[in-house]
Design goal:
The complex is a heterodimer of chains A (489) and B (485). Chain A is of the alpha/beta class and 489 residues long. In chain A, 39% of the residues lie in helices and 12% in strands. Chain B has 485 residues and is α+β, with helices and mostly antiparallel strands. The structure holds zinc ion (ZN).
Chain lengths: 489, 485
């Protein structure tokens, strides 16, 4: 196995045995980036200098007997909507071109404190709005398994980097599936933790009540230990919980014997690719054979969750993105009056999908429409929460496909927003109710494209979530790695 | 036809809280700092920054609400109020909408006889905006060449207090505003400086025929920077509306700007439909739970409020006017009053000394009330010796000055400064004898029935004793010597 293919756990083992240094790990991912970036465009910014310095420090610390834990010396990538002091942060928008934050997001501080080496900032759909990373103002990312296809989104850059080995792990943000769906489409693990367990301070907001940061990794265990590093209460985020990190590692090898697992009835059928449906069904069968009791569970509100999601998320976004006005930072297009300056800046600075969602959200909150749209969507959230609560009275975890499809060809859905929105159908319910969800790769379809399996658990149910996810990983035995085509020159 | 009109007035007050830090970040709240020095990612609205509420500010708005007899909501939430403005960094203000921290209270105005109770609709918590300065042409926005932005004020905790439309006259409006300021100062939650904008007033004014309960077209007036301008602006607006009613220029719903120099209100020509703020619950914050224990703690810590204090003073025998003046006096003087009275001094005399001569002395010497050195026992003794006639009331002022200059107790000062009255009749008899001898004409006039000359003769006695004679005693003895009347 080449160095860049190792998991975080394996790389850490090599580091501690003295076999490699953190600088070696960094060299491996930078080399990999140099070989794959032309095809994948996973990164917007590579911070080679900062990373080199951090790796040097990690090596020096280890030599001095200072070990900061599992992420010590490990090169990690960050989605470019997390603020990094001194390193350009754009959220893949023209409106933030050249913007250099004066502070680190809390997750960035926590990764640094855990000894991680931050390699760079990965590509995303502008302001995390999209499911293919094609909405980036700086050009799309592509899927390592087929460079004619998208890597999913919006954390497509992070997913592509981890799948390709140009980072050992990455952080993404998940508002409606933006970690889990690209993880599914690139054959890696993607976790959206319980809302409130990972600080959002320094995450450029898309929809505040739905956004959650989480890891993308090559293994379930890597996801667990990355989560541990970023988990926990932050006095700078009023929505963050003070819950202790649950003892996730203790149950990684426990298996599913005795657990009751619910299969969500509403997340199957029309629009689901047969390969996805059959792989998921096979995995459910395997879980049953491994000792889990399988029951079919109906969550009727799931059918209208997507509609609610596409009101709540744009409504919050319309306010969150109001601050980008050309007055204090980022792009400015001058005008005769302040109003004109703001209007021109925003018209020029935002891409079409962002503009569409701002308009949608503004409309949904307008006097006379609020109750029919935003108000109604909030009521759907309550009903959905009730559905989940009822389900969890009888089951320990819920499962479904992560995405109805495998990675689709670049350009296929970009002009059809509705079909693009539908790719989030399995993932956005967890965001609406704030529960954790994880995608684990379980196989390839006949075209050799990865298929993901989603596990969900109640709020703060990360321990049982990982227990099931680890078993899924063992049962799938998914060891395939993408072979990235060379570009024709 | 001359209908009699009645004004219907509601007042919105914004009070900046004087907390150490801002509403949603740790930046200092300070007036007059260098522009953009008390700022951080949160109050500048940088990407990714999040608000965290200031607990002290929540406690202070609860105190304001309780002082205004409001209900404190058990659970209250913040909303986003969306509008684009250059000095509003996020282009939304974190404010409150349908569940304010405090609601449904009232404020009784200090009054002479007739009692006026003004209902309080709500008191809610929000954040202040930054400040724009238009540079280039006399500060007028349309002609300005550029605009400078200072975000020091951005995010300062702001309490908005909305009255019910229970106010009927400009005088009442002024009394309401002044009473509110007195309460806020008493609570110690704001500097409440009108000229610095830490307390700001808007008024909603409409008129209707007296006796009617229909509401007329409401006009909002802004930019009143003093109590006097609040009163003038409302008076002007009432008159303007009376004149406009029924004429071509009928009253329209609008916002008008008070022009202090010209003494008139101008229409601000606000854009139609600009008031859809698209309120929705602030998703970056969680609901505030104000449980009974917390509310009780705040309630128990409330100081004596101006109205309660005036009531107490009236019960101690002060009249409305001195009760009001004393109540508005600095805390140092009020506690001197309490301590002196507790030594047994007469309440009215004590209040008169403190609000009269002592206050005048502070002003004359430029002394801060807090630096005043006056022992309650010295004030009590001064009142006693005046009452006993040991010193005259005019000499007593000099005694006070001596006391305040640290010369000792009232008696010691009176003696050292030789201010003791001659109240010994034998000593005075001698002086009176001399005076009568020197003024035979006056004596003659008196005997012809000219009573007035007694005053002249008392004056002569006072002169001869360098003001130390007890004028009352001198008067009595003179009349006796002149043969009664
Ligand atoms: Zn600040």
């Amino acid at each position: 196995m080449t160095l860049h293919e190792k998991t975080i756990v394996e790389a850490g083992r090599s580091l501690r045995s003295g076999e490699v240094t953190s600088e070696d790990l960094l060299d491996a991912v930078l080399l990999r980036a140099s070989q794959t970036e032309a095809q994948l465009h996973a990164y917007l910014t590579l911070d080679k200098e900062g990373a080199r310095e951090a790796a040097g420090q990690a090596d020096a610390d280890l030599a001095d007997g200072i070990d900061r834990g599992p992420l010590h010396g490990i090169p990690i990538a960050l989605k470019d909507n997390m603020c990094t002091r001194g390193v350009e942060t754009t959220a893949a928008s023209q409106i933030l071109a050249g913007y250099v934050p004066p502070y680190d997001a809390t997750v960035v501080t926590r990764l640094r404190d855990a000894g991680a080496v931050i390699v760079g900032k990965t590509n995303l759909d502008e302001f995390a709005m999209g499911s293919s990373t094609e909405n980036s103002a700086y050009g799309p990312s592509f899927n390592p398994w087929d460079i004619g296809r998208i890597p999913g989104g919006s954390s497509g850059g992070s997913a592509a980097a981890v799948a390709a080995g140009s980072a050992f792990g990455a952080l993404g943000s998940d508002t409606g599936g933006s970690i889990r769906q690209p993880a599914s489409l690139t054959g890696i693990v993607g976790l959206k933790p319980t809302y409130g367990t990972v600080s959002r301070y320094g995450l450029i907001a898309f929809a505040s009540s739905l956004d959650q940061i989480g890891p993308l990794s090559k293994s379930v265990e890597d996801a667990a230990l990355t989560l541990e590093a970023i988990w926990g209460h932050d006095p700078l985020d009023a929505t963050s919980y003070s819950a202790e990190y649950p003892d996730v590692p203790a149950d990684l090898d426990t298996g599913v014997d005795g657990l009751k697992i619910g299969v969500i009835k509403e997340l199957a059928g029309e629009g689901y690719e047969p390969a996805v449906e059959s792989s998921v069904a096979d995995m459910v069968q395997s879980l049953s054979e491994a000792g889990a009791e399988i029951v079919e569970v109906s969550l009727p509100t799931v059918d209208i969750a997507l509609s609610a999601y596409y009101l709540v998320a744009p409504a919050e976004a319309s306010a969150n993105l109001a601050r980008f006005d050309g007055i204090r930072y980022g792009l400015r297009v001058e005008g005769e009056t302040t109003e004109e300056l703001m209007a021109r800046t925003r018209a020029e600075g935002f891409g079409p999908e962002v503009t569409r969602r701002i308009l949608l959200g503004t409309y949904a909150l307008s006097a006379g429409y609020y109750d029919a749209f935003y108000g109604q969507a909030q009521r759907v959230r309550v009903a959905l929460r009730d559905d989940f609560a009822r389900a969890y009275e009888t089951v320990d975890a819920l499962v479904s496909p992560t995405s109805p499809t495998v990675a689709f060809p670049a350009g296929e859905k970009i002009d059809d927003p509705l079909s693009m929105y539908l790719t989030d159908i399995c993932t956005n319910p967890a965001n609406l109710v704030g529960h954790p969800g994880i995608s684990v790769p379980i196989g390839l379809d006949e075209q050799g494209l990865p298929i993901g399996f989603q596990v969900m658990a109640p709020a703060l149910g990360e321990r049982v979530l990982f227990r099931v996810a680890a078993e899924v990983e063992r049962l799938a035995g998914f060891g395939a790695r993408p072979v990235i085509e060379e570009l024709a020159s | 036809m001359t209908a009699r009109w009645e004004a219907v007035i509601g007042i919105e007050v914004h009070v900046e809280l004087a907390t150490d830090s801002k509403m949603f970040c740790g930046c200092a709240v300070e007036f007059g700092s260098e522009p953009n020095t008390n700022v951080c990612p949160v109050c500048l609205g940088l990407p990714g920054a999040l608000p965290v509420p200031n607990r002290k500010a929540i406690e202070w708005i609860m105190a304001i609400g309780l002082a205004l007899n409001c209900q404190v909501s058990h659970k209250s939430v913040f909303h986003r109020k969306n509008y684009f403005y250059a000095d509003l960094p996020k282009n939304y203000q974190i404010s409150q909408y349908d569940i304010p921290v405090c609601h449904d209270g009232y404020l009784d105005l200090p009054n002479d006889g007739e009692s006026v109770r003004v209902g309080i609709e709500r008191a809610h918590m929000e954040e202040d905006t930054g400040k724009s300065t238009h540079v280039g042409d006399g500060g007028r926005i349309h002609a300005a060449k550029s605009t400078l932005l200072d975000f020091n004020r951005s995010g300062v905790p702001l309490v908005e207090i909305v009255s019910k439309p229970d106010i009927r006259t400009a005088t009442q409006a002024r009394a309401y505003a002044q009473e509110l300021r007195a309460i806020v100062l008493e609570l110690g939650v704001s500097d409440a400086r009108l000229e610095e904008g830490s307390m700001r007033f808007d008024a909603n004014v409409s008129i209707r025929p007296e006796g009617s309960d229909v509401l007329g077209t409401k006009v909002e007036i802004k930019n009143m920077n003093s109590f006097r301008s609040l009163e003038r602006a409302i008076d002007y607006e009432i008159q303007r509306q009376i004149e406009a009613t029924g004429s071509d220029s009928d009253v329209i719903q609008e916002t008008r700007h008070w022009d202090e120099e010209a003494g008139v209100t101008h229409s601000m020509r606000t854009k139609e439909g600009s008031s859809d703020y698209r309120y929705f619950i602030e998703p970056d914050l969680v609901p505030m739970i104000m449980d009974e224990t917390w509310v009780a703690t705040i309630r128990n810590k409330l100081p004596e409020l101006p109205a309660q204090r005036r009531e107490r003073y009236l019960g101690q025998g002060l009249d409305e006017s001195s009760a009001g003046v004393l109540s508005d006096s600095p805390a140092m003087l009020r506690s001197l009053y309490d301590e002196t009275v507790s030594l047994g001094a007469d309440t009215r005399a004590t209040a008169n000394w403190l609000t009269g001569e002592v206050t005048a002395w502070l002003r004359k010497t430029g002394t801060e009330p807090a630096d005043l050195r006056l022992e309650p026992v010295h004030l009590q003794e001064l009142i006693t010796i005046v009452d006993e006639g040991v010193v005259s009331s005019s000499a007593a002022k000099e005694v006070l000055e001596g006391i305040l200059s640290g010369e000792g107790s009232a008696r010691v000062v009176a003696e050292r400064r030789d201010l003791i009255q001659i109240s010994d009749s034998s000593a005075l008899a001698e002086v009176i004898g001399h005076v009568l001898e020197e003024h035979p004409d006056a004596v003659a006039s008196y005997q012809e029935g000219e009573q007035k000359v007694v005053g002249f003769l008392v004056g002569q006695v006072m002169r001869a004793t360098q003001g130390k004679a007890d004028p009352k005693l001198a008067n009595e003895m003179l009349r006796e010597a002149l043969g009664g009347s």
